[in-house]
Amino acid sequence: MTYNRTVAAPPGQQVQVSRFVEFTRSEWARLRDATPLPLSEAQLRPLGGLTESVSIDEVQDVYLPLSRLLNLYVAATQQLHQATTAFLGSQERRVPFVIGVAGSVAVGKSTTSRLLQTLLSHWPNHPRVDLVHTDGFLLPQRELEARGLAQRKGFPESYDVRTLVRFMADVKSGVARVEAPVYSHLAYDIVQGQVQTVTQPDIVIVEGLNVLQGGGPVSGRPQPLFVSDFFDFSIYVDAAEADIEAWYVERFMRLRETVFRNPSSYFHRYASLAEDEAQVTARRVWNTINLVNLRQNILPTRERAHLILEKGRDHAVRRVSLRKI
């Protein structure tokens, strides 16, 4: 995949300008330098997903160079914040470095986020790294149903954007204690009375489908804030549509044999499906909901990311694209 953009010019003089520096896996791996691997294979194993394992090679080749890059960004941003504080003569306030991780359902965003959280927390100057999933900011299921949005869960309109933006603003303002709602994939809904507390960590990773979207212009008014406005760095996890579909179906089949069998699961009805029926159901859900969201809302935000991780069929990252400064 390439990430070039055509620049407007007189007819016949259009110029392709690349916004990214592209690396093969081997080229990217060399940028690890001497960054040590702080985890054993046994410690890495739980960080994988339901259908995605984590190998030492993947961490060494892809995520250690990325953690080194992010460590440099964090240090530079902290120095800039200190300089601004000194210039203003104000009292320095602890403000976290915020990383956004975006991509399709089933592409491996959560695995990428967990790996980064673990690796970044081992750097000496930012040991406290929090991970927040934007699923917690989805509207409650009953409200989605009342609005006719039950089949558009995960689409931009299914989120409580006001609460999400307020959360991000408080985090980035250095508020001492900020609470985020918690989502249950078992109940397929927000957990009433349960919150995740963020108390001025060094880094916050915000993972979600549509986190790279902008607020969108409103005629005659200032452009509203959105979650992406608070990111210091952002990552898009990318893969071919056919591969993501295969991963989604594989995950659905695994859940059918595990979580869906729990009577408390919102999708308990799928546990009794025959294998061929389950395959058909998974592909129908993918094609009518998740693929539509990917094409309409998620994929168009890819070039807004600072870095793109392009995966192959085996979930291994094949290419890395870093946006030019």
Q: Can you offer a commentary on this structure?
A:
With 325 residues, the protein is of the alpha/beta class. It has one domain (4-323): Rossmann fold. Helix content is 35%, strand content 20%. It has helices at 25-29, 41-44, 56-88, 109-120, 141-146, 161-172, 241-257, 275-298; strands at residues 4-7, 15-18, 20-24, 97-103, 129-133, 178-184, 189-198, 203-207, 233-238, 307-311, 317-323. A 7-stranded mixed beta sheet has the order 3-11-10-9-4-8-5. It has a two-stranded antiparallel sheet with strand order 1-2. A two-stranded antiparallel sheet has the order 6-7. The longest helix is centred in the N-terminal third of the chain and has 33 residues, at 56-88. The model has no long low-confidence stretch (mean pLDDT 91).
Query: What is the typical, i.e. mean, pLDDT?
Result: 91
Unreliable runs: none
Query: Topology as H/E string?
Result: EEEHHHEHEHHEEEEHHEE
User: What's the CATH C level?
Assistant: Alpha Beta
Portion of residues within helices: 25-40%
Q: In whole angstroms, how far apart are the ends?
A: 20 Å
CATH superfamily: P-loop containing nucleotide triphosphate hydrolases
Counting DSSP H or I runs of 4 or more residues, the number of helices is 8
Q: How many structural domains?
A: 1
Radius of gyration: 21 Å
Give a count of the beta strands, DSSP E runs of length 2 or more.
Answer: 11
**Remind me, CATH topology?**
Rossmann fold
Largest sheet: 7 strands, mixed
Label the structural class.
alpha/beta
Shape: globular
Give the DSSP E fraction (strand runs of 2 or more residues): 15-25%
What is the quaternary state of this protein?
A: single chain
Which architecture name does CATH use? 3-Layer(aba) Sandwich
The largest beta-sheet arranges its strands as: 3-11-10-9-4-8-5
